[in-house]
């Protein structure tokens, strides 16, 4: 007898989406996700919400939501919220003694805002180091997404270096979608991770 890994309900294929930063366009994206019954992970920076009073704006992204808007959109929405660093610092360039508190504080704040445990993460700018990867289990982080595209549909082999299939603006997206839909899954599951 052979056993084969499958997704819920015995499905051999799955699509997962991931978007970063908590921007105003996420409200429109959420409507599309609901319309097509898709699930997504939203990776948020708890220290870069747009100020409620409109003062002291961050130059990093002018389309950020306020904390109240973010909570209203993502709390109880059925999608995953994950860590993305308090202020979107490039963690790879920080000493581990500064990088790990960035992750832990973002996790703590987001868990307080959304009332649940957060297990996932996306590295800001996709940048990471071996030391950061080794420290994530100590924080209760189960996986972390990079920005290194594989153009493949394999499941990740290292959960702290989870490389997506492609980016949403990849010129090969249509071809990859067709390939994924036509792919044979006899021996194992396939995941289109965007």
Would you give an account of this structure?
With 194 residues, the protein is of the alpha/beta class. Strand 4 (120-122), helix 4 and strand 5 (143-145) form a beta-alpha-beta unit. It is globular and about 60 Å long. The longest helix has 19 residues, at 96-114. The protein is 27% helix and 14% strand. It is built from 5 helices and 6 strands; from the N terminus they run E-H-E-H-E-H-E-H-E-H-E.
Structure keywords:
5 helices, alpha/beta, two-stranded parallel ribbon, single chain, 4-stranded parallel β-sheet, 14% strand, 194 residues
- Protein structure class: alpha/beta
Helix content: 25-40%
Largest sheet: 4 strands, parallel
Estimate the strand proportion: 5-15%
Widest β-sheet, arrangement of strands: 3-2-1-6
What's this entry about, in short?
The protein has 194 residues and is α/β, with parallel strands linked by helices. It has 5 helices and 6 strands. The protein has helices at residues 26-35, 67-74, 96-114, 130-135, 173-182; strands spanning 13-20, 40-44, 80-83, 120-122, 143-145, 190-193.
